[in-house]
Amino acid sequence: MNAISATRRTIRREWTAFGALLIISVGLMGMSGTQTAHDIESAVNWAARPAETLLNNVADTAGSYWSALTQINRLRTQSEQLTQQNQVLQEELNRMPAVADLNDDWTKITTEASNIGYTTTTVRVIIRDISTLGTRTLIVNKGSNDGMVAGQVVIDAGGALVGRIQSVDATVSTILLINDPSAVVVGKEAQSGATGTIQGSLGGQLVMSGVDVTPDVAKTLKGKPVVTAGESLPGTNDISPYPPGLLIGVISSATSDPNAVVQSATITPAAHLTDAVFLLVITDFQGGFGPPLPSGCPGNSVTPGSSASPGSSASPGSSAGPASTCGPPSPASPSIRPTATQSPA
Length: 345
Fold this sequence. Notes:
33% of the residues lie in helices and 21% in strands. With 345 residues, the chain is α+β, with helices and mostly antiparallel strands. The strands form two sheets. It has a six-stranded antiparallel barrel. A six-stranded antiparallel β-barrel has the order 6-7-8-11-10-9. It is rod-shaped.
């Protein structure tokens, strides 16, 4: 009974409250159209207007700040993206000259390979050792696996003489440059026909000694090109390690001593010895290193540059005994020296 009575009291209170609210609502609806209600509404609006204006201004300011922060964050993100893109483009732009030079070098080397009268293999320089303290060499990216052999002649994209392969490994080869002091070659000035022994120097220039011209002719040699003579070194029984006609360089100065039997000259190398990227290795020319000349043969005397000649008694061919005739062996079967460290250039 108590539970039922409590439930009934609760229902009565709810309906009483509902009725009261309904009466108040109807009363307010009835009063809303009166002048008093309008006056009260105007007074409340007037009192609340400053607060409403303040809240609106605060909301607008907060919205503006939020919009600005959002735009700043978006702009910062876009700026970072543009900076990265600009860096990539700048790196590519910086690479363009190097790529252009590489393409230009490749074009020149392939053109020279098609024009030269020898079979060649293109190699790329991977290590340079061109200091004045040690042996001047280049290491290229091909070796015995690619058909490289010690003693093969190397030229650049302009057909100028670079040097000879000094040693060969399976995948790389070492080139002894012509301006190394241990490199020797017989050169020829084309116009006068003057020949001489050319050897590298510590300063990087080439010194041509034993030039068989008169002092008057020596005065005219400056600025003249010098090519390989295709001749063996004086006092040797060798076939020239170099084919004839390869450009060595240009005579920068020449002596003209009237009291000297032979003259000398300084040559600036024509090959790009310090910055060449691609080179050509001549693979179908074989120079030979024969046994020492018999003592009775003419020309078997010490000449400038002959100390580095492989025709000395220390050459590998010396074990075969003296040659039966004077002069170099037949080019059909030259004896190839295993390294070019002390060979004529």
